[in-house]
UniProtKB/TrEMBL annotation:
Organism: Candidatus Nealsonbacteria bacterium CG10_big_fil_rev_8_21_14_0_10_37_25
PANTHER family: DEHYDROGENASE (FLAVOPROTEIN)-LIKE PROTEIN, GERANYLGERANYL DIPHOSPHATE REDUCTASE
Source taxon at top rank: Bacteria
Protein name according to UniProt: FAD dependent oxidoreductase domain-containing protein
Transmembrane segment boundaries: none
Pfam families linked: NAD_binding_8
């Protein structure tokens, strides 16, 4: 079966890899001239190894908990599963190589035209839109636009292998600090080859009109100056078409976690469901919606409750508790 995947992000590349392994004829179209997402914190739960075992070699640091600093109280959330800090750029390139070895073709520098669906349906039996938050495929299908927040990240050249992330909640998001680890001697369990090693990352996710000002105010108060600043829009709102030949996956489908905006693990979970139901895109739609709808609702409700308590009645929050991180970060 001839399959077109629009977008060479992590979901598109993973699907290309696994579909090519099944013997499908897969072509990936990417508008950029190179593989690799740079505007991403690269903080993934250890579930990443279930999907991409080869990513073990990309681990820079491991995270066991997050500190949430409300104005009058700091709470600590522990995770039953560890989180790993990796370079999303290197992860994408790793999976791109795996997909090509499996037989998938990747075409770079291909600016997908607005009439992509009519043209591609003549050449391909199935089309999968993995083309990010501003998906051309989603737009062509006439589907609604998801809500957006703006994520901004930057780096400080400083070695830090702490095992916890810090966050400072804002009204509609949060500011974060992620220790990206340090260079680790050959022979250690976790060996970093990343160009992001020896750095501490700061960032924010919030409403597009407010994110930049809030981050700048935080940096001024803490006398911090960031380098290599990147930004990206983060979608929220599960959108899957009811179409037997065309579907969406990952950010193109608005599939991100309501609090953190993280989308890699959820996107790979959705990709797994697509592979399980392939080539039935209608069954995939039903399965994904059944699987994620309650998780999205629960995550939204939990976030609102914790934020309300944290800002209004912080004494009601426990100082420490455990939660499933894949539905938070």
């Amino acid at each position: 079966m001839k399959i077109a995947i629009i977008g060479a992000g992590i979901c598109g590349l993973y699907l290309a890899w696994k579909l090519a392994e099944k013997g499908e004829e897969v072509t990936v179209f990417e508008k950029r001239e190179k593989i690799g997402k740079e505007a991403c914190s690269g903080l993934f739960s250890e579930r990443i190894l279930e999907f991409i075992p080869e990513s073990q070699k990309l681990i820079q640091n491991q995270i066991d908990s997050v500190l949430i600093h409300f104005p009058k109280k700091t709470i600590k959330i522990r995770f039953p599963k560890r989180f790993f800090v990796m370079s999303h750029f290197e992860l994408d390139n790793l999976v791109a190589n795996l997909s090509q070895k499996a037989g998938a073709e990747i075409i770079l520098g291909y600016n997908v035209p607005r009439n992509v669906l009519g043209m591609f349906q003549e050449r391909f039996e199935k089309i999968i839109g993995c083309d990010g938050s501003n998906s051309v495929v989603r737009e062509n299908l006439g589907l609604p636009t998801p809500d957006y927040r703006l994520a901004i990240q930057g780096f400080i050249p400083k070695s830090d292998n702490s095992n916890f992330v810090e966050t400072w909640p804002t009204k509609s998001g949060f500011i974060w600090k992620i220790p990206r680890g340090k260079e680790i001697a050959e022979g250690s369990t976790f060996i970093s080859h990343s160009r992001f090693a020896r750095e501490v990352e700061y960032g924010i996710i919030d409403k597009p009109k407010e994110a930049k000002l809030l981050l700048e105010e935080f940096l001024r108060k803490n006398n911090l100056s960031l380098e290599k600043i990147n930004s990206a829009f983060v979608p929220q709102g599960l959108i899957i078409p009811e179409n037997p030949r065309i579907t969406l996956c990952g950010d193109a489908a608005g599939l991100t976690k309501p609090w953190s905006g993280g989308g890699v693990i959820w996107g790979l979970m959705a990709a797994g469901l697509l592979l399980k139901n392939f080539p039935d895109f209608l069954k995939y739609k039903k399965t994904v919606e059944n699987f994620f709808s309650t998780k999205i609702l629960f995550s939204k409700m939990a976030t609102r409750l914790v934020y309300f308590l944290g800002f209004k009645t912080p004494w009601l929050l426990p100082k420490e508790f455990k939660i499933e991180g894949d539905f938070l970060i």
